[in-house]
Amino acid sequence: MMPLALIDNLDNLPNPFTRFQLIVDQLRPHIPQLDKTEYQQDLQLALCFIYSYNGSQATFNSYRREVERLLLWSWNMANCPSTQLRREQIEEFIHFCATPPETWIGTKNVARFKLQQGLRKPNNEWRPFVAHISKLEFKNGNTPKAKQHSFSQAAIRATFSILSSYYGFLMQEDAVEQNPVALIRQKSKFIKKEVSRKQVRRISNLQWDYVIETAEMLAEEDPVMHERTLFIMNALLGMYLRISELVADERSAPIMGDFIKDADGHWWFKVLSKGNKERLVTVSDDMLQALIRYRRFRDLADLPTIAESTPLIPKNRGQGAMTSSRQVRNIVQSCFDKAYVRMCEDGMKNDAEDLRVATVHWLRHTGISEDVKTRPKEHVREDAGHASMATTDKYIDTEYRERHASGRKKNLRPH
Fold this sequence. Notes:
The chain has 2 domains: 10-189, no CATH class; 205-403, Orthogonal Bundle (hpI Integrase, Chain A). Helix content is 45%, strand content 7%. The protein has helices at 20-27, 37-51, 57-76, 87-98, 135-139, 153-172, 205-221, 223-238, 285-297, 325-345, 349-352, 361-371, 377-384, 389-393, 398-407, and strands spanning 105-106, 113-116, 119-122, 129-130, 259-261, 267-273, 277-282. It starts with 19 loop residues before the first helix and ends in an 8-residue tail after the last helix.
């Protein structure tokens, strides 16, 4: 049986604490289980749990994805509400997520619900799982296939974490007596222990030189379009920003007044980062000059005042701040693509290859990786907003350099 979406987007989801009956009335014609009270209660508990994360769109989406998958499996495969699942059934569900049937897998992201005659109805083309291919495969003309779906270690960890929180909530609501996820003792059969630190994905210094030169050339050729591009590239690498920290969303809208000068004349950039935590990022002399250039282009004073509410990254057209993270990705990708072509034209095709698969987040990794070579790692940790020093330590590759240097001259024919 093909599953239908149960939980709408945050913008279209009525408050389940006060308007749950409206949600049921819209879903009941399409979801036969909702004719039974026990399934209605199951859905209401799930909705109330997920809705409590409505302060962040990304967090809401993550929790919705995991809990909705559980409900769909429980209702359609285990034939019971999620409140009745036992430990061994949760294990079955994890195995199911690793290899779902092709009828549960989509090959593109589609809307969960459609508007028909003024009502929100589940979209028959939506699937709980989506197969993806790499950016390079997509560029080469390949398309995703359902059988290519894979369940990564990161996805397994997210499933365990979120479902454990969900059942913790159900216990608080007296809907279950035990947390079946917490009862799974041997999570090691699902989650592999990493024996060594993963290499941080970043672009090389040579690639960055070409990327930033490309942005500078674009800004010279078409400043109206690309002075913003140049500033975005510098900010992503120079201040290790995430996309979400550059664009406006329901939590915050970055403004020029977020650049702050302290009593010593030092400049900082105030960021609202993951977990709704504020942090201050050091603004280097080079980054300050990049800001001055950008402000001069926008006919602003060289440096902002603390009360200045000018959007940091404006829309292409109209008033207000840019709200589309996709637009930032497109800007960065265009720079990567043009830099790749320039490197190939200069006879450095092999050196350019990483730019074909690099993503926006690689710029953050690159900035941190470079800074941690010369700055105290405690300072880098604070600027990056890492929750623990262990995360910052991943960017220190001295150990890898020394290990490789000691091993590269090993003989295949020992003396």
